[in-house]
Design a protein that fits this description.
Elements lengths: L1 H21 L4 H23 L5 H18 L1 H16 L10 H13 L2 H13 L3 H21 L6 H14 L1 H7 L2 H22 L13 H16 L1
Helix pairs in contact: 1-7, 1-8, 2-7, 2-10, 3-10, 3-11, 4-5, 5-7, 5-8, 6-7, 6-8, 6-9, 10-11
Amino acid sequence: MIGTFVNTATVLAGGLLGTLFGSRLSERIRETVMTGMSLVVIALGIKMTLETSNILIVLGSITIGSILGEVLHLQRQLDSVGLWLEAVTSRFSFLSRGNFSQGFVTASLVFCVGPMTIMGSIQDGLSGDSSLLLVKSVLDGFAAIAFASVMGMGVTFSAITVLLVQGALTLGSSLFSNVLTQGMVSELTATGGVIMLGIAIHMLDLKKIRLANFLPALAIAPLIVWISGIIQG
């Protein structure tokens, strides 16, 4: 769990620094920073999506996953958590800058949707090797500073999501390592890339997307690969 604890700490520290010093930036600078971050997320999303060996698996995963997400109202539930945290922290004026809920949800998705989260957590849990998560921690720390400078304190509280998601993956690493094949990981990564592209579109205000409702697609992708293997085998 060392890698997860370090990652949580870097997101927390980066979020605090970005919140404290971001208020000193002009609206024009914050807008430009947000655009730059969105472009980086687009590049990352494209890179991840290209991991697929069969785009139909990604299409099926996104379609089925989004339907499940809508039925389960995942976006509404994640927004509720963000709004609750916002209400708890609203008594402190320096925490109120920016859209708290948007910062919490956006940062939570960016920091937890990706191959480094999954593979790093499994590696940490099985062998105690935290190297991959430590690299991710540095990247997430700088990203948290940039995100929080624009979206405020909600980004800092995404550290809770990082702790819960990566902690669960680390503790259940033996199970996941026995189940996930390289093909499953590739399609899961590609599906995550599509979600990352959706995050960028949302950040650019091109379209409001209920991003959390796509999260079940990350579980559907390996399932489709497994079923395809049975059919072909």
